[in-house]
Amino acid sequence: MNKFWKVLGVTVGALVVIGVVVGSITWAVLASRSPPPPEIQDLDWWEHTIIYQIYPRSFKDSDGDGIGDLKGITSKLDHFVETGVGAIWMSPIFVSPMVDFGYDISDFYNIQPEYGTMADFEELVVKAHQLGIKVLLDFVPNHASTDSEYFKLSEARAPGYEDYFVWADPRPDPTNASNRLVPSNWISQFGGSVWEWSELRQQYYLHQFAIEQADFNFREAAVKKEMLDIMTFWMEKGADGYRLDAIPHLFETAPDADGIYPDEPLSGSSSPGQPGYTTQIHVRDLIELYDVVYEWRDLSDEFKEKHGGDTKIMLAEAYANITMTMLYYGNERDRIGAHFPFNFDFITNLWAGSTARDFAYTIQRWMTYIPHGKVANWVFGNHDQKRMPSRFRDNMVDGLNSLNLMLPGVSVTYQGEEIGMQDGFVSWEDTVDVNACNRGNESNYLEFSRDPARTPYHWDDSVSAGFSTNATTWLPVSEDYTTINLQAQKEAARSHYKVYQSMTALRRSETTLSHGQHHVQALTQDTLALVRYLATYDTFVLLFNVGTAVDTADLTAIDLLSGPLTVCERSVHSSRASGDTIELGEVTLQPGEALVLRGPPV
Ligand code: NOJ
Ligand code: MG
Q: For the chain, which terminus, N or C, has the lower number of CB atoms within 10 Å?
C-alpha cells in the first residue's frame, strides 16, 4: 500500500510539473498573440438593417398612367439588392380618395386600384422575400377617410359605430343660443379648426389633419380591436411590420362632465388658424396613447410566438420632445414598446448652418436618452420634409450618407437619397399637397408644400426620368434628372450612388460597424469625427467637414486612435484615393469633404 501511494505521489507530482510547464508555454504563446475577439452577439434581422422608404406614387410607374404602382416597385426589387438595403417601407398603398395621397384611407383591407391589386401586393412580398428584402407597410391608425364605411356608419349613428370617431356638440354661446360655436380652439396640423360640422349627424367631428381625415376615437374598444384586426390581416399577408403614422395624435383631452372641451392656451407665435398658434397641450403626446403602442408591440410579439417566422417590427412616427419620444421604446418598468421611434433629430435640429458641434451634440443627445439595450436609428429625410441635400448642401451628400450608414443601429434612407436627389420645383398650378393648398397661396406655398420632396424618382435620362413612359406624371419630374439619375451614377467612375453602395457593403462586412462602440467629436467648428471601434477589430473613422470653408483638423485630438489610417471611402469630390495613408496629425478637408478611414484596433 505504501509503495502504491509513493508511486502515485511521484506520478502526480510529475504530472503537475509537466502541466505547469505546458501551461506556461501555452500562456507565453497566447500572450504573444493578440487576445481572442470578444463574443459577438447575433443580431435580429432588423437591428442593423437599412430601411429604404418608398413613396409608391413616385417610385416607378409600370402602366404608363404617370403614377407609380406596385408592379413598378416589384420590377425594381433588384435595386434594393444592388444598393444593399435590407427592408423597404412603403407609404400607404390602401384604398384612398387621395386627399392626403394615401394617408386618408377609405378601405384599410384593400389596395388602391391605381397602385394595383391584392395579387400584385402578394407578388411583391413573395419576390421581395425571395431576394431577402423585408416589406414594411404604413399603418395609419389615427384617422380614416370620411369616405370610409367606418365614418359613414358613424355619421349615421349605426349601432356599434356611434362613437367610432370623436363627435361633439357645438359649444353653447351664452350670448346667442342659436350660434353654433366650435367645441374648442384646437387647430389642425394642416391649418384651420380641428372641428368640422356634419349636417347629417348635427355634430362636429374632430380631424387633426385634413377635413377628410376624421380622427378615430381611441377610447372606443371597438376601434382598438379593429386596429388589431387590420394589423393582423396584413401580417398574415406577409408584411414584416409597420411604420406607425402620426402616433402623437392618437388621443385628445376628453370633454368635461358637461361635454365641454377645454381651449388651449395661445403659444404667442404663429397666426390664427395656423398650427403652432395654440400650444397643442390637448391634442398631442397624451400619456394614454403609449399603452396603445405597447399593445401593438404585444400583438407583434404574440404573432411571432404563434406563427413563428421573423420578428415583425413596429416603428413609431412621432415628432415629439426627447422624453416623449423615448417613451415609445417602452416605459422602462414593465412595458416594451415600438422597436424604435424614428429619430428625426437630423431633420428638426440640424440644417445647412449647423456646425460640427451641433452634429456631435445631436448624435450624443439621442445616444444619451435612449434606454439601455435599445436600438438607435437615423433618419435624414422623408416625404414630409425638404430633401436632405436641399436642407443641407449638395456637397454634403456623401458625408451625410456615410454618417447615416456608420452610426450605430438602423439606417433609414428616403428614396433618392442614395443618388443625392434634391427637391424638385413644383409650380403653384401643379401643387397638389393638401398642406400647401390649405395653408399657402401663390407667393408662400413653398413654405408648406411637401410636393418638392415627392417628385418622381430619377432612374435614367429618358422620358420622365425612366419613372414612367408617360411624359406627363402626377407631379412633374425635376429638371435636374438629366444629370442626377441612377443610371448615370452607375456608369460614372465616381458618384453618390457608388459611395452609398460601397458604404452599405462596408456596413455589412465589418463587425465594428454592426457591434462596435461609437465616439463622436467635433475636432474643430467644422470638422466632425465619428469613430467606431470594437476590441480587436479594425477601427473606422469618418471625418466630415460640414462647413463652407477649407478646414484643418488635428487627429491627435482623438484619444482612441493609435496608428496611421487608410482611406477606404471618400466623397465624390475628394482628391484622396482609396488606400491613401492618413497620418495621425493634421488633416485638411475641403468644404463638404468626407473621408472614411480604416485603422488598427484601439
Ligand atoms: C404623417 C405622414 O407622414 C404625412 O404625410 C401625413 O400627412 C400625416 N401623417 C397624416 O397622416
Ligand atoms: Mg401606374
A: N
In whole angstroms, what is the distance from residue 357 CA to residue 259 CA? Answer: 50
Active site residue 317: yes
Beta strand 551-554 with 586-589 is antiparallel
* Domains in the chain, CATH or no CATH each: 46-137 (3.30.750.90), 514-599 (2.60.40.1180)
- The per-residue pLDDT for range 411-444, each reduced to its tens digit, is 999 999 999 999 999 999 999 999 999 999 999 9
Rounded CA separation 118/189 (Å): 32
Angle between helices 221-236 and 288-307 (to 10 degrees): 40
- Is the shortest distance between the CB of 140 and ligand 1 below 6 Å? yes
Residues whose CB falls within 8 Å of the CB of residue 527, separated by 6 or more in sequence, listed in order: 356, 543, 544, 545, 546, 547, 551, 553, 589
Whether 245 sits among the annotated catalytic residues: the reply is yes
List all residues 6 or more positions away from 412 whose beta carbon is below 8 Å from its beta carbon. 50, 51, 52, 53, 342, 377, 378, 379, 380, 404
Contacts of 279 by beta carbon, 8 Å cutoff, 6+ apart: 264, 265, 266, 267
pLDDT in tens, 247-298: 999 999 999 999 999 999 999 999 999 999 999 999 999 999 999 999 999 9
Whether 344 is in the pocket of ligand 1, judged by its Cβ within 6 Å, is no
List, in sequence order, every beta strand (DSSP E) within 291-407. 313-316, 340-341, 377-379
pTM value > 0.85:
yes
User: Which amino acid is residue 334, in one-letter code?
Assistant: D
| CA–CA dist 130, 115 (Å, integer) | 22
Between 24-28, 59-63, 210-214, 277-281, the lowest mean confidence (pLDDT) is in: 24-28
Q: Give the mutation target among 101, 103, 342 for probing the ligand 1 site: most ligand atoms within 8 A of CB.
A: 103
Stated as kind and residue range, the H or E segment containing 112 is: none
Classify strands 143-145 and 213-215 as parallel, antiparallel or unpaired.
antiparallel
Question: Residue 95: phi, psi to the nearest 5?
Answer: -60, 130
Task: Look at the alpha carbons of 258, 264, 266, 271 in this order and tell me if their dihedral is positive or negative.
Answer: negative
Residue type, 125: V
- 497: buried, middle or exposed (CB in 10 Å: 19+, 13-18, 0-12)? buried
Yes or no: say if 147 and 212 are a contact pair by the CB < 8 Å rule: yes
**Do residues 480 and 387 touch, judged by C-beta distance below 8 A?**
no
Q: Is 103 in the pocket of ligand 1 (CB under 6 A)?
A: yes
How far, in Å, from the CA of 453 to the mean position of ligand 2? 19
Beta-bridge partner residues of 565: 582
For residue 100 and ligand 1, the question of a CB distance below 6 A is answered with: yes
Q: How many residues does the chain have?
A: 602
C-alpha cell at 409: 443601429
Strand intervals (E) in 113-271: 134-139, 143-145, 167-168, 195-198, 203-206, 213-215, 241-244
